[in-house]
Amino acid sequence: MKITAARVIVTSPGRNFVTLKVLTDQGVYGIGDATLNGRELAVAAYLDDHVIPCLIGRDPARIEDIWQFLYRGAYWRRGPVTMRAIAAVDVALWDIKAKMAGMPLYQLLGGRSRDRVLVYGHANGADLESTVDAVGQYLQLGYTAVRAQSGIPGVAMAYGVGRGKLHYEPADAALPTETVWNTRKYLNHAPQLFERLRVRFGQDIELLHDVHHRLTPMEAAQLGRSLEPYRLFWLEDATPAENQDAFRLIRAHTTTPLAVGEIFNSIWDCKDLIQNQLIDYIRATVVGAGGITHLRRIADFAALYQVRTGCHGATDLSPVTMGAALHFDTWVPNFGIQEYMRHSTDTDAVFPHDYRFEQGCLYAGESPGHGVDIDEALAARFPYRPASLPVARLEDGTVWNW
Ligand code: CS2
Ligand code: MG
């Protein structure tokens, strides 16, 4: 079997997505996601200029060998652009292998470890009241795990809060929008939100929260401690993790479970955090961390330390990533939870898929492969539109972590 062609499809059905389609001489094709929010065309160019020419003529069944070739063979290892391109190839090749086997992808990974995949939804509101109401709406939709993010008095645009009635979508303008951040106001406000949520909804639901890298380690330790009475499922990205040791300080001061890793792209980003048991959940996902081949390596390593998975699943990850992640989640023994931000109707139409939501869980489909396709004719009707993630500054003008 040979790869005969591969093409990159850039489309914007509400937001930008980069998709790789790998074709073979047997007529079977595979689909992979290569979307990197705000940097889509960089990955498209990397695929077109450096990766696709190396794929033509290769045996698509040699997934591991192709992964190693693209990773080691580039000499320049890791990084979000490279690793997303490798992920797109890897997921497309797993899709081909599973289609050839006539099996849903999770069967090739080792089969089913669970009946369904617990997901969490994103509730947010401009203030405490509307955020509490939004959590209530998610519970009515059947969710049992909800992430809550609230607007903060005196902070014009807090992380995670949508504007108007739109879905939350941070990449909102061609050039980065600038926002102003105030840590003190946030640290005062966040515990009030979770106090209200527990009073209103009781102890049985799972609540999650994303700090989005905005605190120093000591501030994160303070927040983790102040949230302990509300028993969060996790506190995410409490501080930037380039220095993995920073989590020692947070860990030493709080029992609030910690999640990190949506911007990690290799096992080396996760290694110290996992082996020193500084986190509880690893957020790496197929598109971010080199595909199924590399993510399963991270998950197996994490399992040694009882660290569980919590794959990133924001809307900038396409339905192709969601489909692949659900097969991964169905198999991975140390599964924790899966993030699920719903895509727009246009996005769902461009990417026909067989996964489905029911009672707070997602179910991987049973069709051969990962179960997600792309309607190329429809995709062509949504041309690329430049969109960047915002940049945060402190009130004195200092650039901060968005
Ligand atoms: C977020 C993301 O889903 C999350 O937890 O941190 O929404 C993140 O901001 C985006 O994926 C950035 O592209
Ligand atoms: Mg996050």
Description of the molecule:
By secondary structure, the protein is an alpha/beta fold. The chain has two domains: 101 residues, Enolase-like, N-terminal domain (Enolase-like, domain 1, 2-Layer Sandwich), CATH 3.30.390; 275 residues, TIM Barrel (Alpha-Beta Barrel), CATH 3.20.20. Strands 4-5-7-8-9-10-11-12 form an eight-stranded parallel β-barrel, surrounded by four helices. It has a three-stranded antiparallel sheet with strand order 1-2-3. Strand 15 and strand 16 form a beta hairpin. It is globular and about 60 Å long. The structure holds D-mannonic acid (CS2) and magnesium ion.
Describe the largest sheet: 8 strands, parallel, barrel
Count up the helices. Answer: 13
How would the global form be characterised?
A: globular
Average pLDDT value? 97
Q: Determine the structural class based on helices, strands and strand pairing.
A: alpha/beta
Percent strand equals 15-25%
Ligands, ions, cofactors: D-mannonic acid, magnesium ion
Oligomer: single chain
Sequence of secondary-structure elements = EEEHHHHEHEEHEHEHEHEHEHEHEEHEE
Overall number of structural domains: 2
- The counted number of beta strands is 16
Can you tell me the CATH topology of the largest domain?
TIM Barrel
The CATH architecture classification of the largest domain is Alpha-Beta Barrel
| Largest sheet, spatial ordering of strands | 4-5-7-8-9-10-11-12
CATH class of the largest domain, named Alpha Beta
Rg over C-alpha atoms, rounded to the nearest angstrom: 20 Å
Fraction of residues in H or I helices: 25-40%
Q: Spans of 5+ residues with little confidence (pLDDT < 50)?
A: none
